[in-house]
Structure formats: C-alpha cells, structure tokens
C-alpha cells in the first residue's frame, strides 16, 4: 500500500519514521500526564476549586494537542502520507489550532490567578472561572475556524502527514491573520504572564520564601513555541520554502512537546494541584498548602 505514494520532498523513509516516532513518544507521554491530571480533578472532590478548574481546562486543551500529534504519528508510521483527504486535513488543523490557542490562553489566566492566590490573597470565584473558560474556548474556536473561511489557509506540513496553518503562501491574508494571532496569542499572553510572575517574584522576595521559580512558565512557553512562531513571522516577509523541510518539520514537533511540560509544571508541579494527583494515584489524603501572608494583609 506504500508503494503508490512517493515520499515528500526532502524526507527519506528513515526521516518519516524518526519524526513519526518523536510525535508518538511525545504524544503518548503528554496524553498520559494530562489524562492523569484530568482524571484527578474529576475524581478527587477536594481538588475541585475554581483555580484548579483553570489547570484542568489547560490539561483538556493539551490532551487535544496530544491527540492531534498521535494522529500525525499514526499517519507517518503506518502510511507515510495523510490518508484522510483534504477535508480530514482541514479538520485536523482546526482541532489542533483550537487546542493550541486555548492552551496558551489558559497559561495567561493561570498566571493572573496565581498572582491573586499568592499576592492579594483573593480567591477566584466559580463564576469568574467559568466565564474565563467559556470566553477562552469560544475565542479559540473562532480564531481556529477563520482559516476554514479563507482568511489564512490550512494545509499540509512539509512531511504531509499532519496539517496546520499554511505559512508558505506569505500573502496578505496570511500576514494579517498571523499578525492577529501573534498579538492575541503570543504578545498579550506573554505580557500577562511576565507582569504577574514578576509581581509574585517580588512578593516572594519580600516574605523571604521562594515557593517556586517564577521565571519557568514563560521560559517553557518560549522554548516550545518561540522557534515555530519565529518561522511563522519570518514567512510574512520571506519565502518559507527556502527553509529546509526538515527544519520546518522539527519546529512543530518541538512545539507539540509543550503539553508534556505544561502537565509537569501546572499539574504535577503546582502545590495546589499535585496533592490531588497524588491522592488520585495512591489514595493517600492530601492537605491544602498554606500560603504565607505578609503582616497587615
């Protein structure tokens, strides 16, 4: 069944297996971690707080991205091509884009919420958590749907076993769409994360107790998504096809590892969440961590 298909330009059979395996391993690891955090939230009653609900939503978005990666891995390893046609490609890209935009939005809202958890001691209300969640999912679905209407276009990635925004066109539609995404889904969330984590860092300094490293969340986001984002912006000014297909394929594969780091940071590394994950896995009861308050607060 493979003989009828030529390998995509710039890829050997070995490359297809290598990239497919990377997507498979990354997808399975992320899927397992995020599934654990989702199941913990659903099954451990104590965990169901509005703040943890934001982390739960992040895990749902990330497990969608893991699923998208696993579909690409299956196509790469089993077929060496995309077997579900152009409509399948568009649906796959829409699904993946919704997951990515939702995930990045929740990173920003979690940063804002953490600022209130640690610095102002204001509890998040369920109504606020639900409002944020509905707006974030709704906006992500809207922005992911836009390319299906012709503003920006979904097409195959260089390996032709998964689909994403087509950055090779570089036309006005692409540039305006990419510009909007960069502002709303990179610059704005990064700004929210930086300002809130800086404020938390200053607070930790004041109470002389650093509970966790406040610079990690933004670093992880930039490490995973930065290189891919740079290429997408580069494609606004230059022909992206001049970049080697292997490098163009490597960047989204790296980006798809983001859900693994998110799960480790926000579920397993979050003092308000990991106790519930531990209770879910072992059955041992967890106690709520106490946040040190400044005198006069």
Automatic annotation (TrEMBL):
Enumerate the transmembrane spans.
16-42, 54-74, 94-112, 124-146, 174-193
Query: Its topology with respect to the membrane?
Result: Multi-pass membrane protein
The UniProt keywords, alphabetically, are: Chromophore, Disulfide bond, G-protein coupled receptor, Membrane, Photoreceptor protein, Receptor, Retinal protein, Sensory transduction, Transducer, Transmembrane, Transmembrane helix, Vision
Highest rank taxon of the organism: Eukaryota
Q: Name one GO biological process term.
A: visual perception
Cellular component terms (Gene Ontology):
membrane
Q: Which residues belong to any copy of the G-protein coupled receptors family 1 profile domain?
A: 33-266
Instruction: Spell out the subcellular localization from the entry.
Output: Membrane
A molecular function annotated in GO for this UniProt entry is: G protein-coupled receptor activity
What is the role of the protein in this entry? Answer: Receptor for all-trans- and 11-cis-retinal. Binds preferentially to the former and may catalyze the isomerization of the chromophore by a retinochrome-like mechanism.
What is the designated name of this protein? RPE-retinal G protein-coupled receptor
């Amino acid at each position: 069944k493979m003989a009828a298909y030529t390998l995509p330009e710039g890829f050997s059979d070995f490359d297809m297996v290598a990239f497919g395996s990377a997507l498979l391993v990354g997808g399975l690891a992320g899927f397992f971690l995020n599934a654990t955090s989702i199941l913990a939230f659903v099954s451990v009653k104590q965990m169901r707080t509005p703040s943890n609900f934001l982390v739960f939503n992040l895990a749902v978005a990330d497990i969608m991205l893991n699923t998208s990666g696993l579909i690409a891995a299956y196509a790469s390893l089993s077929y060496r091509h995309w077997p579900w046609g152009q409509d399948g490609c568009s649906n796959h890209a829409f699904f993946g884009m919704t997951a990515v935009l939702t995930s990045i939005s929740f990173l920003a809202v979690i940063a804002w919420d953490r600022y209130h958890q640690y610095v102002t001691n204001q509890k998040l209300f369920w109504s606020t958590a639900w409002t944020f969640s509905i707006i974030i999912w709704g906006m992500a679905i809207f922005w992911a749907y836009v390319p299906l209407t012709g503003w920006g276009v979904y097409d195959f990635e260089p390996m032709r076993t998964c689909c994403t925004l087509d950055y090779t066109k570089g036309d006005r539609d692409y540039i305006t769409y990419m510009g909007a995404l960069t502002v709303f889904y990179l610059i704005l969330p990064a700004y929210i994360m930086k300002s809130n984590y800086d404020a938390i860092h200053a607070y930790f300094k004041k109470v002389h107790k650093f509970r966790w490293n406040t610079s990690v969340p933004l670093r992880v986001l930039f490490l995973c998504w930065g290189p891919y984002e740079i290429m997408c912006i580069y494609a606004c000014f230059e022909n992206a096809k001049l970049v080697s297909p292997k490098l163009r394929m490597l960047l989204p594969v790296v980006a798809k590892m983001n859900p693994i780091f998110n799960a480790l940071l926000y579920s397993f590394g979050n003092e308000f969440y990991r106790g519930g994950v531990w209770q879910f896995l072992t059955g041992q009861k967890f106690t709520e961590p106490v946040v040190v308050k400044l005198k006069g607060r």
